[in-house]
Amino acid sequence: MILVTGGTGFLGSTLIKQLIDEGHAIIATKREKSKIPDFLRSSSLIQWINADITDYFALADLFKGVSKVYHCAAIVSYQKKDALLMNRVNIEGTQNIVNLCLEHQARLVHVSSIAALGTNKQGKPVNEKDKWEYDRNISKYSLSKYKSELEVWRGIVEGLDAVIVNPSLIMGSSAGKKGSGKIFELVNKGLSIYTSGSIGIVDVEDVARAMIVLMDRTDIHSERFILNSDNITNKKLLEKIALLLNKKAPNKEASTFLLGIGWRLAGVKAFFNGKIPALTKESAQAAASKLAYSNDKIIQAINLTFKPIDLTLREIADTYTNIYQQTEQTS
Question: Which residues lie closer than 8 Å to 318 by C-beta, 6 or more apart?
Fold first, then answer.
């Protein structure tokens, strides 16, 4: 039996879709208030379980007969108020999954993040060997993903059969207006500024496909793999999206100084209106970072062919346009 945590999430739901298309029966965990995606609702191959991965004993009941675990559940946030929740879910939750996999001798594919990777001192794309180093300016999210990955490495030392994947920014048409889909929303509404940073991008379907292949390749274990299709500047990414949406591309660069003013003003505004700040110090730093990642290891290991970024963006744009048009018609 296969267990997938975070089954209603962007990646988890895509992974489940690929697994059931292959005829696999799935136990999928979700939070009580999470909505099951429409494309998974009617499948008789999925057993949905409301579960808190920080509750060891509740999880233990799910592991009977489970031999494969895909751990996708995690909290992604750059808000200070979510720091404790991220520690509980990302670190303690992973600790529980690792311990139960050890107890039941289940093979684990753990979804980490590029946020848990180090930096390359020679200015080359980051690879799996670059060491993570603590920085006082590091985001709480990055720290939680690094520590959650340490739980998996601890399990490996204790005999855990596991593989770790480190996806870059995951994009795909099924995100709708959430997650990476928010970028399309901003451009569509007339975003005029861009940041000087760069980022790695990977299609959600490629991440799910790589995870399935790695799970079945039992000769591969105690390894981590970066999953990244392309490296691109924020400016170029926004230009591509603007072209697809037939909108004007952002043409004003937001300097580090302006970003600093921006997150401080956003914090003040949020304090008075009681809402979540649209920009934080951590998200501003992430937006200005120049990041690039190597995919050599995963290509050599399983001969993975990544979907071209232009195709991914085209699929997202088509889906977003349809959603936007439907919203306009009903409003």
Answer: 173
In this prediction the pTM is: 0.89
Structure confidence by residue, pLDDT tens digits, 80-108: 788 898 899 999 999 999 999 999 999 99
Q: Are 293 and 228 in contact (CB under 8 A)?
A: yes
Long-range CB contact pairs, 238-245, < 8 A, 24+? 238/183, 238/187, 238/191, 238/194, 240/309, 240/310, 240/313, 241/183, 241/184, 241/187, 241/313, 241/317, 242/187, 244/313, 244/314, 244/317, 245/184, 245/187, 245/188, 245/317, 245/320, 245/321
Residue 90 lies in a domain: yes
Containing domain of residue 129, as a range?
Answer: 2-175+199-233+291-309
Residue 78 is predicted with a pLDDT of: 74
Give the DSSP H/E element, type plus range, for residue 200: strand 198-203
Asked if residue 282 is part of any domain, the answer here is no
